[in-house]
Design brief:
alpha/beta; binds pyridoxal-5'-phosphate; four-stranded mixed β-sheet; Aspartate Aminotransferase, domain 2; Aspartate Aminotransferase, domain 1
């Protein structure tokens, strides 16, 4: 299997920059060449040589129903036969906006995009246009896509590769972004005290998933809400990962703190390229053509993506009650993994939030990016390769989330625990 992927990767590197179309797919941080995928179904993914793995990456979050769900595939095929892009409005776009708005009521008006990056980039521009201010505040280790203003102390692949700030982002733009430690209420208080009147937006992952999973401490999000309201700052929740991950709605619908704008992506596209932003009518109305903050997209609201998303969301709505089951499955998996680590006396800190978690190779606690970086990434790399050998597909980075889907069975979980025991034995 490895040989097939090695051959494919060698070929890819001749024609694709770095051999991959997104850096997180490279195995640079764990060593070796990435496995190429031939297909995926349910909880399983198959490499180019046909070897089966239980998939815990799930395309980095979107595939919450498992791969190739029949209803989603049907919807894509039915739609494709009627044409794949029109550059004119379709009724399905209204339907998905209605469904999202009903699940996440703070999204009073919505705009669909083709990626999460476009959603966050647009949210930032909109906040700047609406407030007439330029500064933005983000948090270390949070990832909000790859737009210039947001690539400061970013998470995900930027964290994996250890890039502090990306070349190509002009200093004059980076200077407008203030990045603060996640979960540190005091620092936010003093930063906003100082710059409040110049800040257009605070953008945050309400549950961080891109430095590994780090949940918000009590009071952190509430403080952001209070400060932004007081200083006329737009509060943006980047729910690209968390939207529809924990419940039929956003994280905001669980904890009750409502942002001014919300960004979505991943799950709402059912595995097709999608993003969305939405929020207060008054702010969203500033977007062109109603307002003059410009944003556009040839393929925005694309029929295939919208119908894959609709099929996914309709299924999730029916399954709303079973989110609790997903939570329990993840809880069991994490408890048992923790026991396996304890039995081997390997320090571990598992941060879990419902059906997403990270196994940090350190004693913890991990409450922010600085804590996350204390992990033993060499040991993680060995564990990663051990798990791959045992047929378990994890993200090739310590600083990413492990996701469970509705397609994961109890047998999958049991097999994963056996694999974990074997991988730890061979560390
Ligand atoms: C994945 C992600 C994005 C970017 O979405 P893309 O579709 O990859 O552009 C933005 N924010 C968060 C929190 C993400 O996890």
């Amino acid at each position: 299997m490895i040989e097939t992927s090695e051959k494919y990767f060698a070929q890819a590197r001749q024609v694709i920059a770095g051999g991959v179309n997104s850096p997180v797919r490279a195995w640079q941080a764990v060593g070796g060449d990435p496995l190429f995928v031939s297909e995926a179904r349910g909880s399983k993914i198959y490499d180019a040589a046909g070897r089966e793995y239980i998939d815990f990456v799930l395309s980095w979050g979107p595939m919450i129903l498992g791969h190739a769900h029949p209803d989603v595939i049907d919807s894509i095929c039915r739609t494709a036969r009627k044409g794949t892009s029109f550059g004119a409005p379709t009724e399905a776009e209204t339907q998905i906006a209605q469904l999202i708005g009903s699940a996440i009521p703070s999204m009073e008006l919505i705009r669909m995009t083709s990626s999460g990056t476009e959603a966050t980039m647009t949210a930032i521009r909109l906040a700047r246009g609406y407030t007439g201010r330029n500064m933005i505040v983000k948090f270390d280790g949070c990832y909000h896509g790859h737009a210039d203003s947001l690539l400061v102390q970013a998470g995900s692949g930027v964290a994996t590769l250890g890039i502090p700030g990306s070349p190509g982002v002009p200093d004059c733009l980076a200077e407008l972004t203030v990045s603060l430690p996640y979960n540190d209420t005091d620092t936010v208080n003093s930063a906003i005290g100082r710059y409040g009147s110049q800040v257009a937006a605070i953008i945050v992952e309400p549950v961080a998933g891109n430095m590994g999973v780090v949940g918000p401490e009590d009071g952190f999000l509430a403080t952001l809400r209070e400060l932004t309201a007081k200083h006329g700052i737009v509060l943006i929740f980047d729910e690209v990962i968390t939207g529809f991950r924990f419940a039929f709605g956003g994280y905001q619908d669980i904890n009750g703190i409502k942002p001014d704008l919300t960004c979505l992506g991943k799950i709402i596209g059912g595995g097709l390229p999608v993003g969305a932003l939405g929020g207060k009518k008054e702010i969203m109305a500033a977007l062109a053509p109603a307002g003059d903050v410009y944003q556009a997209g040839t393929l925005s609201g694309n029929p295939l993506a919208v119908n894959a998303g609709l099929a996914t969301l309709q299924l999730l709505q029916k399954k709303a009650a079973s989110y609790a089951q997903l939570d329990l499955q993840a809880q069991h998996l994490c408890r048992e993994i923790e026991k396996l680590f304890f039995a081997k006396s390997i320090p571990v800190c598992i941060n879990r939030f419902h059906s997403m978690f990270t196994i940090f190779f350190q004693a913890g606690p991990v409450k922010n990016y600085r804590d996350a970086k204390k992990s033993d990434t060499d040991l993680f790399a060995r564990f990663f390769h051990g798990m791959i050998k045992e047929g378990i597909w994890l993200a090739p980075s310590q600083f990413e989330a492990i996701f469970i889907s509705f397609a994961h069975t109890d047998a999958d979980i049991a097999r994963t625990l056996e694999a974990c025991a074997a991988a730890l034995n061979n560390l």
